[in-house]
Every structure is written in structure tokens, then in C-alpha cells.
Design a protein that fits this description.
One of its GO terms (molecular function) is L-malate dehydrogenase (NAD+) activity. This protein is an alpha/beta fold. The chain has helices at about 15-20, 40-45, 60-65, 90-105, 120-135, 145-155, 195-205, 210-215, 225-240, 265-270, 300-325; strands at about 5, 30-35, 55, 70-75, 110-115, 140-145, 170-175, 180-185, 250-255, 275-285, 285-290. The radius of gyration is 19 Å and the shape is globular. (2S)-2-hydroxybutanedioic acid binds near residues 79, 86, 118, 176 and 214.
Length: about 325
């Protein structure tokens, strides 16, 4: 029996993501929550003849949506319009995330939480701080979903070569906004064939892929379908790990808790220190099993430079999220 709650289920991401989750062989129950239309979306999906039971919950019924949830996936919040950065969403989305985190702390304190809402670099720290203040935070169970960056990286490399043979050697680490997104392509043999100009163009496209969609949608929002796909990929991988499959590693944004295997090494390898970061994480039934820190020893000079730029910006984004909850300025 596995219950998953989607908070923000009626939105551009929420609807296609809920559709994909309705098809999952690993789920028993799907609880859809939104401040609008969740019951309608749930009724629509409930006509699909798969075994996942779907129910919808209105604005005032967060408690029912969350009670008994093993996983909570959160795409609630406003998306970007052309000209905006993800940080411009902070003003509205920080409050939404704080409220939802308080709900999770109260009604599903043991659930694995997967945050999609932007700016991820700040919304995940907000979530962590609320859970910590409520005394229920467990670093193994909180994830920022950065899978779309990896999905984009794996897609865009094909623009440069007929066929990039070693997609599994590609990672995207750091955070989820512009310069904090650090594509790690150098482990793949095909990387050596790129000119510096091609490499820079490819990295830029991965870092700013979100802007491409925002511009193309021309005011009607940001990536929804590719994001729903990416979240589904991550959720399925986590569900497989929960079922006991071993060797599952995904790039995801987590809190660096020293009790987690590999975190001490990560901290010694990152100059200046960050508290949250996306790295390859080994998943298990308890969520984050270990951080695969070895990648940090394998960066080439160019990637090290990108990574240093990323961690500086990331620290500011993280502090902004923590400060929002604590009310006092977080240390940088
Ligand atoms: N992590 C990523 O890679 C990634 C990728 C794409 C988009 N996003 C982010 O995901 C978020 C959602 O994007 P979208 O395109 O689905 O937006 P959307 O506006 O289409 O949908 C958001 C939904 O959230 C709901 N909502 C608002 N406040 C809520 C609350 N308090 N409780 C529950 N639901 C609430 C809205 O009613 C709406 O249905 C945005 O912040 C966007 O920037 C993240
Ligand atoms: O670009 C955005 O604002 C949405 C999302 O973070 C993305 O990467 O597509």
C-alpha cells in the first residue's frame, strides 16, 4: 500500500504528473490537493481503468489529502513569465511552501517530500526549516527535484553529435537556476570531441533551458510537460528504491546532514561550504542512503570553475529561504 499526495495537482505540472502517476504500478492511492479544481481532476482521472485509487481534496482539506501519505510531491506555486528569474517567484511561492510544509509537519511528518516549486534553491531550505522547527525533520526524506536539468542535458547533447553514447555518465549538480545548474559532461568520452565553443553553448543551453520554454510559452507559464515527465521519472526511481531495488542513483537537491554517508566527504571537498546541494544520491527504502561524493573529485578545471560560481549563488538562495522562516538573517 503506497499513498502519494500531489499538492498543486490542478496546475500545468500537477495535471500531467497526476496522469502519469495514475499509471504507476507502484502506487495504490493518489490524493490530489489544490486550492482549485482538485476534485474535478481526480474525478476525470478516476475513470482510467488502472488500479491506483484517486481522490481530490479542496482548499480546506489538506489534512485528508496528507493523512497516511508515504510520499508528497509539490508543484504548487506560480510559474515564471518572460523576463522573470526563478528568484522573482520567491515572494509568492515562499509563503505557499511554508504553509504546505506546516501541513506536512502536522499530518504526514514521516512522508518523503519531493519539492518542485521554484525557486527550488530556496523552497527546499524553507521546507527543511519548517520541519526542523516542528521537530520532525529527517534529511533522508526531503528532496528538491532537479531531474529536469538532467533530462535536458541528456536531450541537448544529441544536438551536438549524431549519438552521444554514454548518457549515463552525464550528471547535473549544484542547484536549479541558471548559473547554479552545473552540467558535468566531462566523464563521457564524447565530451573530448566538443570544441570549447560547442561546450560553452551546450552548457549554457542546459543552464538556461527553462528560459527557452518560458519565452516560447510567451506569458502562459513555464515547463510543465517535460517537468511532469521528469518528476515521474524521479518518483518511479524512488518508489523502486523503497521497494528494495538497489543501485539506484539520482541527482537531487538535498540537505547535507553529516549523519548521511558521504556528506562529511562532500563538506570537505566544497570550499566555503553549502548546506543544500544537488549531487548524485543513492536511494533506498529510507530515502537518501548515501551521497556519491566521488563526482566532486572528477571535475575538470572548467567544471570546477562553474561549480565555484554555483555554490556562491546557492549560499545566498539558501540563506534567503532560511531567513524567511526564522525571521532572523541566516549566516552566509
Ligand atoms: N523543479 C523544476 O525543475 C521545475 C520545473 C518547472 C516548473 N517548476 C515550478 O513548479 C511550480 C508550478 O508550475 P506550474 O506550471 O504547474 O504552475 P501552475 O500555475 O500551472 O500550477 C500551480 C498550481 O498550484 C496551485 N496552488 C497555488 N497555491 C497553492 C496552495 N497554497 N496549495 C495548493 N496548491 C496551490 C494552483 O492553484 C495551481 O493549480 C512553479 O513554481 C514553477 O516555477 C519547477
Ligand atoms: O524555468 C522555469 O521557471 C521552470 C523550471 O524551473 C524549468 O527549469 O523549466
Amino acid at each position: 500500500m503506497v499513498k502519494l499526495a500531489v499538492l498543486g495537482a490542478s496546475g500545468g505540472i500537477g495535471q500531467p504528473l497526476s496522469l502519469l502517476l495514475k499509471l504507476s504500478p507502484y502506487l495504490t492511492e493518489l490524493a490530489l490537493y489544490d486550492i482549485r479544481l482538485a476534485k474535478g481532476v481526480a474525478t476525470d482521472l478516476s475513470h482510467i481503468n488502472t488500479t491506483v485509487k484517486v481522490s481530490g481534496y479542496d482548499k480546506d482539506d489538506l489534512k485528508s489529502a496528507l493523512t497516511g501519505a508515504d510520499l508528497v510531491v509539490i508543484p504548487a506555486g506560480i510559474p515564471r513569465k518572460p523576463g522573470m528569474t526563478r528568484d522573482d517567484l520567491f515572494k509568492i511561492n515562499a509563503g505557499i511552501i511554508k504553509t504546505l510544509a506546516q501541513g506536512v509537519a502536522q499530518f504526514a511528518p514521516k512522508a518523503m517530500v519531493l519539492v518542485i516549486s521554484n525557486p527550488v534553491n530556496s523552497t527546499v531550505p524553507i521546507f527543511k526549516q519548517v520541519l526542523s522547527d516542528a521537530g520532525v525533520f529527517n534529511a533522508r526524506r526531503l528532496f528538491g527535484i532537479t531531474t529536469l536539468d538532467l533530462v535536458r542535458a541528456k536531450t541537448f547533447v544529441n544536438g551536438f553529435e549524431q549519438y552521444w553514447k554514454d548518457l549515463s555518465e552525464i550528471n547535473v549538480i549544484g542547484g536549479h537556476s541558471g548559473n547554479t545548474i552545473v552540467p558535468i559532461l566531462s566523464k563521457a568520452a564524447s565530451y573530448a570531441k566538443l570544441t570549447a565553443q560547442q561546450r560553452d553553448a551546450l552548457i549554457h543551453r542546459i543552464q538556461f533551458g527553462g528560459d527557452e520554454v518560458v519565452k516560447a510559452k510567451d506569458g502562459a507559464g513555464s515547463a510543465t510537460l517535460s517537468m511532469a515527465y521528469s518528476a515521474y521519472v524521479f518518483v518511479e526511481r524512488l518508489l523502486k528504491a523503497i521497494k528494495g531495488e538497489t543501485g539506484i542513483v539520482e541527482d537531487t537537491f538535498i540537505y547535507l546532514d553529516s549523519s548521511i554517508q558521504g556528506v562529511k566527504e562532500v563538506k570537505s571537498l566544497i570550499s566555503g561550504g553549502v548546506e543544500f546541494i544537488s549531487l548524485p544520491v543513492r536511494l533506498s527504502a529510507r530515502g537518501v542512503e548515501a551521497v556519491e561524493f566521488g563526482i566532486l573529485n572528477e571535475l575538470n578545471q572548467h567544471e570546477k570553475e562553474l561549480f565555484n560560481v554555483a555554490t556562491k549563488e546557492l549560499k545566498v538562495n539558501i540563506a534567503k529561504g532560511i531567513t524567511f522562516v526564522t525571521g532572523s538573517k541566516a549566516k552566509l
